[in-house]
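Forum: Protein Structure Q&A
Topic: Joint prediction for protein chains with partners

I've read a bunch of threads here and the consensus seems to be that you should model interacting components together rather than docking separate models afterwards. I'd like to see that in practice. Below is the full input, 760 residues plus whatever partners are listed. Could one of the regulars post the assembled result?
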Amino acid sequence: MGKKYLFTPGPTEVPPSVLAACAEPIIHHRTLEFEQIFAEVNEGLQYVFETSNPVLTFAASGTGAMESAVANLLSAGDEALCVQGGKFGERWTELCNAYGVKATPLDVEWGKAVEPSLIEKQLKDNPALKAVFVTLSETSTGVRSDLEAIGKIVAKTPAALVVDAVSGLGATRCRTDAWHLDVVVAGSQKALMLPPGLAMVSVSDKAWALVEKSTLPKYYFDWKKAKSNLDKKTTPFTPAVSLIVALRESLRLIREETLDAALARQARMAEACRAGLEAIGIELYSQSPVEGVTVGKVPEGIKGGDFVKRLWSDFGIKVAGGQAQLKGKIFRIATMGSLDCLDIPLVISAVEMTLHRMGYPVELGKGVAAAEKVLAQPVQ
Amino acid sequence: MGKKYLFTPGPTEVPPSVLAACAEPIIHHRTLEFEQIFAEVNEGLQYVFETSNPVLTFAASGTGAMESAVANLLSAGDEALCVQGGKFGERWTELCNAYGVKATPLDVEWGKAVEPSLIEKQLKDNPALKAVFVTLSETSTGVRSDLEAIGKIVAKTPAALVVDAVSGLGATRCRTDAWHLDVVVAGSQKALMLPPGLAMVSVSDKAWALVEKSTLPKYYFDWKKAKSNLDKKTTPFTPAVSLIVALRESLRLIREETLDAALARQARMAEACRAGLEAIGIELYSQSPVEGVTVGKVPEGIKGGDFVKRLWSDFGIKVAGGQAQLKGKIFRIATMGSLDCLDIPLVISAVEMTLHRMGYPVELGKGVAAAEKVLAQPVQ
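Posted by a regular:
Agreed with the consensus. Here's the joint model:
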């Protein structure tokens, strides 16, 4: 019966006004009313994506839109570079494999960001590479890639730079146009503060040229069909109307706060979260921490699964555990979306008390104090 | 500022308690709570599908799940029969073409149902056919296929029978198991009374055997992945949580009414709608009318587009016009989902007054009286 708190890196908490929009009576999608909403949504998405490229929206999870990038850009036998330093980077390789695209995996040690010069070398060694697949915010490890540097490198080659920004967009800076990001994939249930069920993808002119040559099969996720419908302010297939209406509201909230302020707020929350954890002896996992999710190593002697469970059972706090080889070894606290300043002392407080109850030596309040030290600074 | 009424064949009106469920705080999908909801949803879907086959649920529009049937059952170069007598039947052919499947289109005159013996002949003439794609309720023409008869024919062959039941399921009888329907595709925004954004597909043992041999590319819509996750009461990718929670509520409503009663109610509404239109001289388009949508021909001298627009502007009634070659020639009134008995005199009344205002000779009240004559009969 207690209060519940969603600190998971997707789905994230949805603001009340966005939830209310989800419950509005359904409108038909072939109407002027919907067209106006959809046009407003697209403008808002371009604002958050920082792009003048069209942003296509699909009724799907983020993975559906990731798949659309492979199917629309490439042909069977094409070669692509897949940077993988976590579960989501590996998904690019799996997607390429599913479609008969020759994926060259570029393995990065988990917890570290890819060294941009390694991508440069691969592109130099293999001019046949048609696309480079990267991850903005690797949710499984809390690592942020240096897309600005990578963008500069890939822009000089014929390859398209394709970014999984599903859990990053809106939480960490992603300058689509300025950084030469050809394709950026996002999802609704992260920093866009919506229920899951919508995925978006922005497509640059360079990417559209690849689309013209692609022969892989596609229909539901066909970008050309989506684009020609977008030009008419609609979608080729019935859109997830209620989520689009809700997206208008969440984009309105972001524009009201401004993207700069929203990013700064989330950066501050992440910094405070890291400071709080470190102050009580929790080691951070990521060596290039991203703003949207803070990853702590489970301390010696504590079972990671139990820790995550007790945060939930004792305090109603839902955080994520580790995936794959990190199962039981880390915990992940989302610091993105509609969470605010005071949510950080709150979650650090729960972490302190849970560790204490589990017999781990914690100086109660020390982590909270460290978080406050960050958050008490005047907001610029 | 007036009241608005959605009589479109998708999206349809969503009941208040289902809308309210859409606005519930988001829960995380990797929790016992979600697993219990998802298990309940799957039981409810099996009840409405009338099947003991697993029903896979995707965050997508119905077309996404239709595509999944092609991608999961077939391989490039396979042959398939596509029954097309309307816009949605044609979609099966387009999907096969997109995936390099050799589609044999079986053209049926629009407004008529396919003659099952024609399917029998095709299967006899071409034993290589691996699948037969049909449409339960062809929303573009208001035609219902005789799936019971077709099922008997296809069951005797090695081919799988794949049914687009997106706009039919829950509005008209669809006995998946008893009729030997190997794959049945449904969507959330029709008789399931939900916002758009979810698609479901049931898969028989015969179909699973084809899945094992299929080599077409798939990832997001991979049935095997969906099935192994379903066995663990979850989904491979983040599900559209709020729509799943809402689906639990709409399935609860259907079970409360009982499927038989819901189908009888919608059949009565459709019969009353047809009677009402015919009484004022509107010819019906479909020669095998389906329960979920009633299609009338726009009378001589009236512009179909204007008629649909004036129903909206004058009375807040949203009906659908014709698609493709039927543009301007027909109008389509949905009689499915959460609509109830009194909605029929209401919509017929608006049709009468709109035609009157547009100068078409109508004896006011005559259509309503004919509808009432059907609806006034005691409910069995």
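Chain A has two domains: 16-256, 258-375.
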